[in-house]
Write a structure and sequence with these properties.
Elements lengths: L18 H13 L3 H10 L8 H15 L4 H9 L2 H15 L1 H16 L7 H14 L8 H17 L18 H9 L3 H7 L3
Helix pairs in contact: 1-3, 1-4, 4-5, 5-6, 6-7, 6-10
Length: 200
């Protein structure tokens, strides 16, 4: 079932934060390589160390779409920043690429914390999707497998970002955005992303 709508982008099912791979792609993008060299490094040298070319293509396509929402300053932070800064910038890119992830942070994670509920439930996820479907009715046409995969990937992203303890307990952890990333967001007027990530 098609999972891309006018507002909510289900393409996030293609992968979680992909921190290791994204750091490599960020470095390549900053080098401004020609097409032949890009192909050589990814598909001949296999610098991502993946088993198949289709896997590499899917992964690189997702990472490049996310990076397209950022500028070279952000790519540099991913390429050379410390683990927390790189991870938080990848979370920023994922939010900018997927409104579904951003709204989940605002409506469910932040909403639960405001209500002194320190975990996320499957019912929270179902209710969230129902609310999204009132905004974008096409969501009702998403297949059960797409919805299951979306849940898995979004919860995995939140666990990787250390917003959730893990994908089993779904306990919400204290989260403070990396100061360098926060300064970047303020400087670039990223008010929506800031709203998503200011969870305290």
């Amino acid at each position: 079932m098609q999972s891309k709508t006018g507002i909510f982008n289900g393409e996030i099912v293609a992968g979680s934060l992909l921190e290791k791979e994204s750091r490599v792609i960020a470095r390549l993008m900053l080098e401004n390589l020609d097409e032949e060299t890009w192909h050589q490094k990814l598909f001949v040298d296999n610098i991502l160390q993946k088993r198949s070319q289709p896997t590499i293509k899917r992964m690189v396509a997702l990472i490049k779409k996310r990076f397209a929402t950022l500028n070279p300053e952000a790519w540099q932070m991913v390429a050379t920043g410390n683990n927390e800064a790189a991870r938080h910038m990848l979370l920023v890119a994922a939010i900018k690429h997927s409104r579904l992830l951003g709204d989940f942070l605002i409506k469910v994670i932040k909403g639960n914390l405001t209500a002194f509920q320190n975990n996320v439930t499957d019912r929270d996820w179902q209710k969230f999707l129902e609310e999204c479907a009132t905004i974008e009715p096409q969501i009702k046409q998403w297949s059960p497998s797409t919805i299951k995969k979306l849940r898995q990937v979004i919860f995995r992203i939140l666990a990787e970002a250390k917003i959730l303890e893990n994908t089993r307990s779904l306990k919400i952890m204290p989260f403070f955005i990396n100061p360098e990333v926060e300064r970047f967001l303020i400087k670039n007027d990223e008010s929506y992303v800031l709203k998503c990530l200011q969870l305290q």
